[in-house]
Fold:
Amino acid sequence: MCGSGDVRDASATRPEGGRVLLTADAVGGVWQYALDLAGGLAAAGIETTLAVLGPGPDAAQMRGAGDIERCRVLPTGLPLDWTAASAAEVNEAGRELAAIAVGTGADLVHLHSPAFAAGGRFDRPVVASCHSCMATWWEAVEGGPLPADFAWRRDLVGLGLRAADAVVAPSAAFATATAAAYRLPVVPEVVPNGRREGSSAPVGDPETFVFTAGRLWDRGKNVATLGRAAGRLSVPVKAAGPLRGPNGDAVSVGAIEALGHLGEAEIRAYLARRPVFVSLARYEPFGLAVLEAAQAGCGLVLSDIPTFRELWDGAAAFVPADDDAAAARAIHALIADPVRRAALGGAARERSRTFTVEAMTDGVLSVYRQVLARRAEAGRAAA
Structure:
């Protein structure tokens, strides 16, 4: 690909040139993933059209996107697969995305949800990212048979997974869970997420408070348990993020001080104070907020779920996800032991250096090359 100036030439080690249609939503971590990936692709000379589904980006999000070269944001007004009213809406959105791919001259389509490949009829290669899905969410958070409103969404994702030319997941644990949930013959390719560091080396002493961030309304984040733990603590617990989601879900945070929606710079400022960062998530395919906290050198207290064990074992304290008493004990113990807190913060910071935007981009580009090479080979065989 390098040297030809075309993303369709898969012969060299790093692509340059070409166009990618990358879809995203502006509701959670997928937005940041998309911006970081678009920036990494720009460094490889690839132009990205970022097609945003669901609620449009706010002014701060648009400013962040404006800093990325070779990236154009295209709010589509199309429904997200997890807020759409019917399978027909999702399939129609897929067809609209296929038309956008043609209109923008994309060489490859990278979907943030496989569901849009189910009825999209794309005429160019499709890579689908598994950032999350309702089937694996339900298994981790609720358990038991899927309700009807979830079942048709699962079926669409399953069709999309099989229609895509390649599927990527941000952790091995989530790739395995996805393959099991959809009975896939091949486990998705693992390409861990990455983030650019937003702070310098830690200075001074860590401050004595607890912090968390994310889509607080999402029951998978399990903020209600942290709220109960906060009632057992003698230190402040602060949480950044929305309490109500676009699907109507909401959460009560108990003794937590809810900070509301904060921009990236504001969250980075809190993390720079190196609080104890806590995530008691029952469901987390990767956890960008944890990565950002680790980059800042925060001591981590995390739920003992497969994803967090895979990514942060040896660099965090682990507790059962729904045990607020154990979470409170772990937080108190870390605050009372500054030596251990510093050691865990240092270990987390060191571990975070493996999750860079450059590594993520290289992994995604490798998948692009494989997909394009297979398409080219199939074309030659059919000629």
